[in-house]
Protein 1
Amino acid sequence: MKKLAMLTVKGAVGLVPKAVRNKLKSNHKLTEFYSRSLQRSGLFYGFPSEKKRMALYREYLKHQSKILSSNAFSGEANLDVTFIILGHKSLSTSLESLREASNDEIDIRVVTEKTIGVKVSQFSTLVDAVSGLDDDKFLFFLNSGDTITHDTTRVFANKGEEADLIYCDTDRVDVKKRRVSPHFLPDWNPELQYSTGYVFTGVKCKVKLVKQNTVKSQTIAGLVTELWLKQPELLIKHLPFTLLHRATNKAVVDESLEDIREILSDCTSAVPSFNSELGVNHLQWPIVSEPLVSLIIPTKNARNLVKACIESILDKTTYQNYEILLIDNGSDEKESTDYFDELNQHPKIKVLSYPGEFNYSAINNFGVQHASNKSTLIGLVNNDIEVIDPNWLTAMVGHAVREDIGCVGAKLLYSDGRIQHAGVVMGYGGGAGHAHKYFPRYHPGYIKRLIATQNYSAVTAACLLVKKSLFLQVGGLNEKDLTVAFNDVDFCLKVKETGARNVYCAEAELYHHESVSRGTDHAPEKAARFNRELQYLKTRWGNYIDHDPAYSPNLTLMRENFSVKTKEEFSS
């Protein structure tokens, strides 16, 4: 019935004049509501319906149960910790859960300024709550109303003792007592924490961490952020199991994000702001003396595409200290070569000739070699990119100049407004693919991962910024083994191996008219080349394909939509 209703709605939307549709699409909340309705109906780009998602999660829970009952998790069942509960709402639910899960007398401390009518130790701040505890004692944090599972204490007691801080996945229990809405989290992801506070409950760490850092935080998400910023060498481990039932309300989320903004203001030079419409934090990192950016754009002919690309950069980009290097790979159409001659007269543009066979890696390496000696940053840009947000380069440069950041990628849209790229996930299709591909522009994605700036293992070179020094340090793009496909993924992973974090910058929005400029790889020779390059990726980066730290092992690799793995995927 839902599918029929949504098909009717989709048909009606198709009859609305295009100008009106575009106006409606600019309303984020309306677009999100429409997208979520499509999700629930099962018509959303292959995304499973709510009924199917619940079935997938039930199968996952059977899989999890088998793992957690294995020898790997045998041992002490009790978690020797002090439980710290933040807040007072539904406090009795949390207290009952903790007492049922422990056979021994347990130490529970509640942090809230409200007077509670329960016999339990109460404190007004986190610092007060831990002040009398032994430094080597462990703390376990949860929000008031959250409950633990029968596996929680045993799993936390047996895993991650070498880590400084450990967190787990969560789900909810609905009114019918069903486990629903799993939050399958990535491994530690600092930028995602800044943007969304994705680690906000189910956290274990030592007392001394809280004491020695004299924390100011009053939320769990803020505490995790503050500890990381004050001690970035912390070893943070993720347990990819749903071990806690969250009961988070909007107030907790808002308080967490506000707490994180205050911590970022105190501990970094970034300027944080809150996007109330999307419910995420935005950060603008400082740009000192506006470094020169060399934007490298390869092309063969394609005058109209190049014109749209370059004019959008020149006319719409707020950040002005850049040069454009247009690399002409054997253009033979007069209208294109004439236009390129015109461009070569522009003070910001140089047109360079790179004759011979198309080799994307070699062409871009050539461009970097000819970039200005004064340039600090390299931008790899496809000829079918078109600027949407004037601040795209400002946002990306802010990340790229940070000492601990490597490659920075943008949010790219197809011509019709659907997502083309929002970060690369390793393992999709056995190689790599694009997160949230084909989702609507304003959809929040899985746990806000489409609209939030965060770390991914790789981003696309269709629009990528990186320090020139780092580009040269890792040897640029692999022009021998990866002439067309996966060269950007390989490059990003080489950069990641230096210790730098790669970033998907959700604030930088551009069109990528990919279907216009790039043909398919169905021709026999192209298919053979693609398969060779895919095999190289699998051989060279098999560890990331087996487990991408920016993606949960419990999410599917068969589609680019963050749905839960199928029973067949777990069994294989």
Protein 2
Amino acid sequence: MAHATTQAKTQFGYRRHPDQDRSQADLAEHAIVVVGAGPVGLSLAVDLAQRGQRVVLLDDADRIGEGSRAICFSKRSLEYWDRLGVGDRMVAKGVVWSVGRIFHGDAQLYQFNLLPEEGHKRPAFINLQQYYAESYLVDRVAELPDIDLRWRNKVIALEQRNDGVALTIATPDGPYRLLAQYVIACDGARSALRQMVGAEFGGQVFEDQFLIADVKMSAEFPTERWFWFDPPFHAGRSALLHKQPDDVWRIDLQLSRDADPVAEKRPENVRPRIARMLGHDKFEFEWISLYKFQCRRMDRFVHGRVIFAGDSAHQVSPFGARGANSGLEDAENLSWKLDRVLRGASPASLLESYHVERSAAADENIRESTRSTDFMAPNTRQEARLRKAVLSLAKETEFGKRMVNGGRLSVPCVYDSPLSTADVDEWRAGPRPGTSMPDAPIAPRSGGNAFLTDAFREGGTRFALLAFGNGPAIETPAGVKAIRMDGADGWVDAAGLAARRYDAEPGTAYLLRPDGYVAARFRHPSRAIVEAALARAEGLN
């Protein structure tokens, strides 16, 4: 591996904690222990702390991870990071993009725009090296006194009990133990905690290999996603080009199944490949790695009081940006549910909905990722013939273009959820229960510019009732914040986009969950109807 030259290499010192000085008969007890300070673990810890929970966050390293790794973060993830107080910083540093181009040989087949309409606060995607994302989240953690981040603390054993989990943790000063009501495993694809609970991790590992090379150079390429099938510089295989901050470019090159991974990663062997692609060799290596596609997940994400999120629970191929983004959706799905359970506001059975919703999302991501992999790297002669036919059709027809699969980009999952209340009214459009809330430009009654996602996060993310004006007044249930689009007592939908995107008529209302998903929607809401939907979404009936 070639190490990065521009990445933030912040290293954090180990500090002994008073928990390490307690006797075996008097172990420290904590409500929540999160294991793994990657983007998912850090985001989950921040979310829980902002809800008033105290969190111990353990990581076996003492620095931000090396290499850019995940780089594509979706609009949905940016909206979540807005709620965590780091969205502006991510977008300011990141490379904003929404357009992608697909090539066959040296000819463009088609291009697409992931966010063709205006009126959204956040772009479709940004490209941002994972070490920057982690660094900004660590800075946010430092601002929150309810998070105790302990570096070089490695969990080496766990014992499940009826009332919690006992963890044994290795440190430079030797091991110590503590008790947690809940442990959240965000310790990555090689999760040690997954092995400790004896969980199955089933699925498919593809034999085709892909080379990642992050190179630093000055280039005139646009800030778009470019994907090639059978390019002239890499005949018979596929390639991908993405821009990152600091004049760093991500290049993925498909290799043969029998390629020697040690030899392929040597810079002297990678350089000629990249030079053929770029037409010059005026670049420096930032990071080189090799990987195989993996599409796997655990059978269950909840094991007693140990809950799995991110790569520890599921893995997909990197084409499509479904790895880190799906892990962040795990975090926002779990945080509000665990908070309610710990406060006694919902029964522990609410956590089962985390498994139901996010395991179904993992299945969807694995399904899409497997299809992309099969198209990009055909396993059989029949698959290869199909791909050749589709690429030929794509040159002539629109339906052929839609069949080309160079990695379907991450979108918010749709939940068929036990927490959702089914529609009883007629709807022409708008987000149905189980879908993520769409954004729209709005304005506070006092003037200025804002977005619906701003109104949702104002005052903390909790259940919200989005009500469109000129209908009967609804008394908002206790604990639910009101977002009134009536111009007099709330926000103004000056452009009319909010009403259009929510198929709103006078009196229309949406019940939004704390993670920004629609729990229910109503044409003619009453206090009793809203409270029944709220109780269902809270796991109370």
Protein 3
Amino acid sequence: MIGVLGLILFGYLIVIPIIALLAEGVVVGEPDTRITQQDEGSLTSYYFWRIFVSPQAAAIFWKPLGNTLLIAAASIVLALLLGVAIAWLLVRTDMWGRKWFATALIVPYMLPSWTFALAWLTLFKNRTAGGQVGWFEAMGITTPNWLAYGQLPIILIFTIHFTPFVILLVGNALKRFDSTLEESSQILGASRLRTAAAIVLPILRPALVSAVTLILAKVIGEFGVAYVLGLPTNMNVLATSLYRNIYSNQHGTAAVIAMVIVLIGAISLWVDVHFVREAKRFVTISGKSGGSGSVLRLGRVRGLATVACCVLFALSVAVPVIVLALSTLMRKPGDFSASNFTLDWWVGQGLDTLGFPNGILLNGEVWSAMWNSLWIVGISSILAGIVGLLMGYVVVRSNSLVVSSGLRQMLFLPYLVPGIAFATAYMALFGEQRGPIPALYGTAALLVIIYFTEQMPFASRSGISSMMQLGSEPEEAAKVAGARWFHRFRTIVLPVQKSAVAVAMVMAFISGIKSLSLVIILTVPGLDVLTTLSIRLIDLGYSQAGNGVVLIVSALAFIGTYTVQKVMKTDLSRGLGA
């Protein structure tokens, strides 16, 4: 019964929104009845024509698609090169400070990706965009557009943000790698390069392919970085083009763009699943080696490798955070004289900023957005943790293959749909009343629902994994003793799985608190969360206040991650499976 109810609930929350989104791309919307000369609701190919072959197609779709693929490809290549090298240094060498760097170098992945974009803008912003100039421009150093905005900084930021992701995946694979294979190769006379090409890379291929496909799916749906650094020079990617079409009331065009984003995400997911199946060809059957060849002694370059990791940490964590923090203390950007520093942006009153009269810590709008973030994301995270365990229970315990398999696949669909496309689907479904379900657009209920649904891939997988480790014997014994299902679940399953549920809740909270793409088109004035408030402040030219709000988001995400690690006595540096 729980499984059937789950299929109905998530069929409505996951499958139907995607269908509603697809429908908007093939039926005439009210604003386009005159252009198409068709009645509202009629089937049409107009939006496909507009996207793919119209005179506006290049600006709306083809250029954003080209920018998206170029940025994704360059980011993936650079993140792989940097991430694999760092993972190898951390796992397979005697570099100084390996344990500390193993945690420190994954901090960028804990922070919102657009944190780095705002730090970059603070440094390099020039007079092309309105508002305050960047630090370098203020100090008399002119920054060209190609450095301040567009593809280059976006690629560099994505590289910084996703390198920890590669370190986690590849580092975990390297730790499980049997180093006796390398030793055997070298005994037979193969060089280190030959050994790496013939043995190490093939075994790491599944991890590398997973990194490529998962990063691709994330880059395509990423909105914040491209919005912050692409808007001043009118450089669009698919996510920002979709956003602009929604706000210009071109919902049919936006639906077709979302279809393309979903299709690319589906292809990347299929490739990942295909290589996961192929990964069985690369399994090594051996115990963990304790041979002397498992750790490479770097010798003279040991110090250089350590310095390189220090520089990477500085560029990816210390510099962005320090830049944002200092920017919130300056009246004028780039002026480091003592008289220019102030706490007004944090605790000042009566500021000369229309619509934002008080500092961050005294501003009712900030506290309202923080409260919205905490209670909306908090409720959705609690629901995700509990329902995730329930769904995991059904998938593992159900005797119905249809219910078990159908629920498992359905719950993973939100991962396939990038955040901004999923939000577009929810606008299509909940933008107007449908039967007994009222229009929810502009309400907190819709935000709770979409946060909850978007977290179900992780929460359900966590529930499935934890239930697979719990045998059915305790429940069977309770059943023989006459205990009903609810009593068995409450007194046996929940107490045993409380740690797994807690981790699922906290991880869902961390992901939700720093999410921007998922809610940027669903929030309305008065219902801002911290991420959307930050972007709105940046748009208004209040960069100091916007940067301060981002620092609060980053602190919440970092504290949440640190709490999970301490409570569970583990750390992310052990790999994603930890």
Protein 4
Amino acid sequence: MSRTVFSSFSAPTMALLCLCVFASSTASNAQTTTQTKYSQPTRTFHSAEEFNRLTKGQVKIQRGKTTTLTQLQGTDDGILKKLPDGSVRPFPVGVQLPWNEITVLADDQPAVVLIGTKRGLISFNTMTNNVRAYWSGKRWLPDDHVTGIGLEPPIKANVIWVETPNGFSRIEFKEMTLADKSKAFVERVQKRHVRWGMTSDSILQTPGDLSTNKMVSSDNDGLWTQMYIAAEAFRYAVTQEADARANAKVGLAAMLRLEQITGISGFHARSIIKIGEDIQPKDGEWHTTADGQWRWKGDTSSDEIVGHYFGYAVYYDLVADATEKEKIRGVVTRMTDHILNNNYQLIDTDGKRTRWGWWAPEDIWEDPDETGLRALHMLAHLRTAHHITGNPRYEQAYQELITKHRYHLLLRNQKINYPGHVNHSDDELAFLSYYPLLIYEKDAKLRAVYLDSLDRAWQVERPERGPLWNFIYAACSGAKEFDRAEAVRTLQEIPMDLIEWTVTNSHRLDVPMDLLADRFNRKQALIVLPYDELPMTKWNGNPYRIDGGNGGRSEDDGAYFLLPYWMGRYHKLIGE
């Protein structure tokens, strides 16, 4: 029922320094299995009437500011601890609490005290002298002003009742494995996030009410769907569960349709909508099909292309039967030929290249910040295409980019950080490209260059504790040290509730703030907080961002948990 909270060692503005600062990891990677079970916090909201009915008088609500066991006294400016000689001193020593306007104190276990404040509930471990958890916002509480705390018998700390002016929150710690968690996440995707076979966004017409969900098109349906396809492909390879294959197969059909619907050989739409049934997005470039039944979104980005090469490859290797292999060879051939026939560009219906779809040697320096990233993309695409199709044209193009244009050497500067302008979306696209490039590349000299690039990028990313980055790094490099414990911690911290509740941390007294905003001019911290205390995000989001959400008006699909978890299982980097 406890959760260890580690400190982070770097910040977005100091990312390059972490090559030196993060020389050693808190994780021990000596084993390939994780602890079978862990405690997953979940919550439900209840009225006072429901509280009385459910607890039947067995839960006493503590509303005072003093404790008997730990001898603490809460004030409007922090906590005092009574010492044996009758004197008092501030509590805790050497640790700043997230907020210090104390409203309620309750002894939980001999080593744990629950601290109610005007801005959330804190669980503090007196033995380790650290904050175990901070619960605030509607992900956890109906109101941040805590007026009472109760512990449900027979096991203390297994269930905590939190009283607020707007009702009660019941926070329960459920024993489960990550495999158990995966089942719930797969169920969520299938129930509320499969739209015409694509893994889609889900808006909630009544904030927080999942029964009012409506699936909608997003700007990157191709990328998100391919990541979910890969997750289910890895799951199938590990478990041989029929539903994993079936789910991936539905996604594959949708991806093939994204190419077919445009009428341009090898050119995938970003997304599609059914006229009269789907909500018409206000953004983007939309085209109507000849039958007037559908619209497809153009201006396809490198994001989608990275997703397609990644997802098609994983499905091809782990799931596809002979018929599906033929279909994938066909679509990958058309996609790659479209790029090569158009001088390393994506050409839309207007005959012009899309905004982000270009990788040619004469164009790659147009955006110096992304030169190495674009070189990485193209080498990965060609290496993947050759693996799937065996077409010598792709091997020839690959070798020409290396020998004539030195694309492999450009990877040395793939990861470039400017303070306040770290592009986490590019990080995601980079790691999804490293994976097939290094899985399929056999040349020792090229692998050495690629691994240097991957290692440099991973060292910068390490403080974020991203399991997808850690597992891709380990799978591609074979490194024994890849922060396994930190990756598992993050997988455990990802909340069960993926509703995009408004989350606010900028008021916290325990969070060192970055003086610079992120590239979207949003506040960010110098550390990565526990993931269940952060705004809902995917791996292309900024984990240093501390405020966000949309008031519970949408729900994430959760594939960002499923992909790294099942990739880690497939490569035997973690257990259940």
